[in-house]
């Protein structure tokens, strides 16, 4: 029977010399969630349009870059104009401030009425229904969080309108598949080595200030990944 040490060994990865301690701490959940959303749950290809909600956040800012590296057109959504500038800096083709604009209507306008091939949604209730409205034919909505609350129950018949797909994602499922997990690690490191992916550590906190870090995260003012250090 596999031991705890056996499982731990398969979940450890040597941190390359070009990654700092803080970046290494941010890497596993932030980067691997984004990579597997785009390349395991979905197969992102050139000329697809990808909408990334919370695009200035830890997973979002990485997903923008990985989608761009795959050749996709990327539309990010954010809650302020200052975050919009940051997401543009990290490679998004277009950015929508969802506090001042209807992101679904804007997505349809920006895509000439076609819609998005993929929507990455960690928000949930506030964005889910609108996301269904702006999917392209055969488009996919990937729900991987519910920061704004769980979406209302899905009426399956809604998917018939565009032959759309809705699915969920959690990283632990991938962790249980070592070969798939390893592929994500190696290909993400390669993107970083090539300068196509940069990690954004928004702020580091001493472990004793974990409460302050949580408050900043809940304030929706943070960008990138927050890291706790010893």
Describe the structure.
This protein has helices at residues 4-9, 21-41, 58-69, 81-89, 103-110, 125-133, 171-175, 178-193, 210-218; strands at 49-52, 73-78, 94-97, 116-121, 135-143, 165-168, 201-206, 225-229. The strands form two sheets. Strands 3-2-1-4-5-6 form a six-stranded parallel β-sheet, sandwiched between helices. The chain has a two-stranded parallel ribbon with strand order 7-8. The chain is an alpha/beta fold and 230 residues long. The protein is globular. The longest helix is centred in the N-terminal third of the chain and has 21 residues, at 21-41. It is built from nine helices and eight strands. It has one domain: 3-Layer(aba) Sandwich (Rossmann fold), CATH 3.40.50. Helix 2 (21-41) packs across helix 3 (58-69) and helix 2 (21-41) crosses helix 8.
